[in-house]
Design a protein that fits this description.
Oligomer: single chain
Mean pLDDT: 96
Radius of gyration: 18 Å
CATH class: Alpha Beta
Number of strands: 12
Bound molecules: zinc ion
Helix content: 25-40%
Number of domains: 1
CATH superfamily: Ribonuclease Z/Hydroxyacylglutathione hydrolase-like
CATH architecture: 4-Layer Sandwich
Low-confidence stretches: none
Structural class: alpha/beta
């Protein structure tokens, strides 16, 4: 994906900030393939959102969660199955109750081994982080669109919206604090990750993805924790939604003139890059263009 191998995707458990009372984020520090990780405290239980990639990162996140949670019981969930978000879950097995939505569990089963192989090819730092990774099943699965858990004086809401960035994206909301963890449905000043790898993985629905971002924005969250990038407000959601709607329209218009995906990438890619000079990971522009070209 990039010309240079990415740096080691190490979670830094000291990079933790309290974004609202009892709600902590271990920052990704804008390191590629490190996600923002959430720890939400109630009176009786603590919820961990995402693990980082590989067993060592998972162990670090578990230790950080235990430091914050004290003797509260631990629950782990994931925003989606992608390796940097969930392939540290084995450290939590037996230490926390692991809860996914059914689509995410199924997607992990279907694609987990192939993604493990793909990510290992990204470079030695990523391969080292994934050393010893075992894909583990959740302890509980919920069907349907919504699930809520009482952490003790604090409700957390798990919401599932169908195919978007992946088949099993899940948003975690903490209504009393107006906080949402949105996973890779939104990155902050990072080009949206379109995992468009046909024929191996072509599970993206940008229409639904944009619809979900609109719904989340309409709920007026105070604090948005993106999958990657800095924590902010609802403007993170509108920036991603605006990018996707605009790019989709432009690619569709190019397809109508008879251009193929390669030509559109060559024509539009540099323009889109120049329009967002302060956004990172421009390699994702071409994946998005090819997705929209295939769907047009
Ligand atoms: Zn992702």
């Amino acid at each position: 994906m990039t010309d240079n191998p990415p740096p080691p995707p190490h979670v830094d458990p000291n990079a933790v900030t309290e974004v609202a009372p009892g709600i902590y984020v271990i920052s990704d520090r804008r390191v590629p393939l490190v996600p923002n990780i959430g720890i939400v405290l109630g009176k009786e239980a603590a919820l961990v959102v995402d693990t980082g990639m590989g067993p060592e990162n998972g162990r670090k996140v578990l230790a950080a969660a235990k430091r914050l949670a004290g003797d509260r019981k631990l629950i782990l969930t994931l925003t989606h199955f992608h390796p940097e978000h969930g392939f540290g879950a084995q450290a939590f097995k037996g230490e926390a109750t692991i809860i996914y939505n059914a689509a995410q569990r199924d997607e992990l089963t279907a694609k987990g081994p192939a993604y493990l192989g793909m990510f290992r090819s990204f470079g030695p730092g990523v391969a080292a982080a994934l050393e010893g990774t075992e894909l583990v099943a959740p302890d509980e699965v919920y069907a349907g669109d919504a699930h809520s858990i009482d952490l003790g004086g604090r409700l957390v809401e798990f919401s599932t919206y169908g195919l978007a960035h992946t088949r099993g994206d899940q948003v975690i909301g903490v209504p009393d604090a107006g906080v949402v963890f949105v996973g890779d449905l939104a990155e902050e000043r990072i080009f949206p990750i379109f995992p468009w790898f046909p024929p191996d993985d072509a599970d993206i629905d940008a229409d639904n993805w944009a619809r979900v971002l609109g719904l989340l924005e309409a709920a007026k969250p105070w604090i948005v924790v993106p999958g990657h990038g800095s924590v902010g407000g609802a403007e993170i959601l509108s920036a991603v939604r605006g990018y996707m709607l605009d790019l989709g329209r432009r690619v569709a218009a190019e397809v109508k003139t008879g251009r193929n995906a390669d030509e559109i990438v060559a024509e539009l890619g540099p323009k889109v890059r120049a329009e967002h000079p302060d956004w990172e990971a421009p390699e994702w522009i071409d994946f998005a263009i090819r997705y929209f070209a295939a769907k047009a």
